[in-house]
Amino acid sequence: MADLEGVKIAKNYHTDEPFANNKGFYIKGANHLDWGMKKHLSNIFNPVSGNTVMFAFDHGYFMGSTAGLERLDLLIPTLIPYIDVLMGTRGALRACVPPENKKGIALRVTSGSSMVQDDLSHEVLAVDIKDAIRMNADCMAVQTFIGADGQLSSLDNLSRCINAGIEYSVPTMGVVAVGKQMERTDRFFKLATRILGELGVNIIKTYYCENFEEIVAASPVPIVVAGGKKLPEPEALKLAYDSISHGANGVDMGRNIFQSNHATIMAQAIGKIVHEKYTDKEAYEFYQDMVNEEEK
Prior knowledge:
This protein is an alpha/beta fold. It contains 12 helices and 10 strands.
């Protein structure tokens, strides 16, 4: 066991210096990966902006029929033109997503808990690598609990998924889960994201917090920020802007798109921030103009 006595608190993040090992390929931490891994990652991250807009609609695997996601078959086709990656379960993807779409696929591969349980941290790997390959997934998304009762089994799920992904050149995205007893502090997210990076994930999905640029600097792979709960549109756009301006390589918006009164317009506004360097205020002006035009 490592001796923790006398360990210094990290402070030298060099946030003004870019990631050093990025010669030859544009995605952070992927320089020495094989061609197949790079191809999948390039389906996720735009080669011009280097960023991504993910659309998460995997909420039903633990929440059941969620407001805004009652009819995936009707909703998803309207959003496909305005996002880069579809993040869902294999059941929803196979049944409701047109296979001729050209978007990246982030396949949720963990499950086993529901909202009726007090603790969601005891999940299992529900999808194996063979089915991920059959679905042409560009990454496998693994819910990962740090500091929860199920931490050990959660990290075991993640490690087994990473091992299989390396064997077959399918990237793994570690999704930092925040349980009821965990504080959303920069100290926690520095711990959680670094653990996932050290274990070998290719992408980290986490939450925005104070000192976010330090979390990004310390991560060896790209970070995508989760949208979290439904926010008013100006606040959701500010979250996207703060995330990108402090170093994230994308956002994964679910409820802030599908629970918006104007989901397709909201998706476009988020894309303006992520790919076109709009400020949150400029993106909200775009949103309002598009809504006014739609309602004429």
